[in-house]
Every structure is written in C-alpha cells, then in structure tokens.
Specification:
Number of domains: 1
Helix content: 25-40%
Distance between the termini: 6 Å
Order of helices and strands: EEHEHEHEHHEEEHEHEHHEHE
Strand content: 15-25%
Oligomer: single chain
CATH class: Alpha Beta
Structural class: alpha/beta
Radius of gyration: 19 Å
Strand order of the largest sheet: 2-3-4-5-8-9-10-11
Number of helices: 10
Shape: globular
CATH architecture: Alpha-Beta Barrel
Amino acid sequence: MTERPLQLDVTAEGAMYAPDQQYRLLDIARAADQAGVDFIDTTEHILMGLNALHSGQGWDPHHLEQPQPEALTTLAAMAGATQRIKLLSAVVIAPLWPAGLLAKSAATLHALSRGRFVMGVTASWHKDEYDALGVPFHLRGQILDDNIGACRALWAGAPASFHSPTVNFDGMFCSPRPAPGERIKVWFGGKFTPRQIRRVVTLGDGWMPYGGLHMTLAEKAEAVARLREAFAQAGRDPASLDICDSLAPVDNSIARTLDQIPAHAEAGINIIRVHLRRLAKDPDEVLPVLEEVVRRFEPYRALKVS
C-alpha cells in the first residue's frame, strides 16, 4: 500500500482575537506559511442563537458573542497573504448556502489561491441557525448531498444541469471553475454512518472525524479502514483519501499534546489538526505557540501513514 507523509494543519479561529483585531488572523496565516505548515483552517457559524446553550456541545453564554468570521471570506484574505500553504474550511456549513453561490464562492477561492483551497463541509447541529436562515433543519443531510452534487456539476463543465430533491437547474454556467484535470477537494465532517461513507466516496475526497463525534481512536481507525475499502470498491485510489483529525490538548502542554501523533498516524490519520487557541493562554501567545508546534511537529514528518 502507498505510504504518505504526515502533514500539519493549524486552526486559526476568530475567537482567538477581539472583534476589532480579526486582522491578526492574517498574521497567523503568514507565519504558518513561512514556517512550512501544510494547512491552515478556520471555523464557521453564520449566526448563533440561544438554543446553542442547551444543544450540540453545550455552549456557554459568552460563546454566543465570540467572533466567528465567515470562513470563505477569511480564507480568501489568507490566500492573498500567503504563497504555498493550503487553505481549509473547517467547516463550511454547506446546507446554509444556496448551491450555486457555494459553487461560485469555492471556485473563486480555488482560482485566486492557485488551487490551494480544500472545502471542508458538514451539516452541523444548530437548529436556530437554520431557522434564522430559512433552511429546513430536518432536511440538512439531503441538502448537503444535493448542494455538493450541484457544486460538482457546476465545476465539471458548462452548461451544467443538476436535478435532486432540493436543487434543480438546467443549462447554467459557473466561471471561473476548475480547469480540466483540476479538482476542488471536499472533505466531509460528521458522524460515521453508511450515508457518510456514500457521501465521501461519491462526492468527496476526505473525512474529518473531529472531537465532537466522541469516537475513540480505535473506532476512528476502523472507520478509516472501511472508507478505504469503500474507495477501492468504487474504483478510487484508497491512497488519495485524506483523513484530518484534531489533537485533544493534554495538560496545556504542546509536547504532551503532540505525543499523541504516532497513535493517530497508526490509525490512518494523515493530517494532524492543532487548535492554536486551545494551547495559547492569551492572544499574544498564539504566534509563539505556533512556532513551538511547528518545531515539535518536524520530527513526526518522518512518520508514514499507510
């Protein structure tokens, strides 16, 4: 089986900084780019409602006001501030976007970044957000499938047509779009279910089994093996499947947090995600934390994920 090098993704969240200091996210992007980090990602909620205090992971009241800049806009700014680092949305809540707008925004970011964009998507959990934006919460899984299917159609050529339970169009043009032979990678977040397997295999390129799923590492390893098998059965190269997973902080120690990396690599995870905010005590520590994460990650690059 093909072996791949381990890669590093760092998360730059708006919550790291005050609302009037969101420009500091670009400093993180520049520093990560210059330090050789492979990916930088940012998170998304469009709107937050009071229901978040009692659902999902159980937010605290102050979380409702924490800055969460829109992901694709933030990544576009990061694209202009960097040269080589890949740009990951972790995540875009795809059902909250009209399919054509999502396709156009992603294709624009792909073009402006010279192909460095990876679109991480999920259906998410916050019903208030869906209600406020007029999207049926109970249909979010179907809309996710349909929106990404529509994106694939619009990115593949023109005129494009697509018909599904929630998205329908004929003879539409989306330009810019990926050139022939180019592909905008889509990584799916969310619970590991038969539907998720079909979603990743037919529409996607990777899976993000982040901490909110409460899976053990052994369960994740089993899921990765099942996804690779499904890729092979579908005629796709299992070695092309990306698995991006977060490290849980350990004792507020960067060294002990990164000590978890070999076990993650053994489980088939080839992209290690580190939340900078969870390891930095205050905003002025974020850049030094990034520097230490990069330094301590370097020896792990010798690990290969099979």
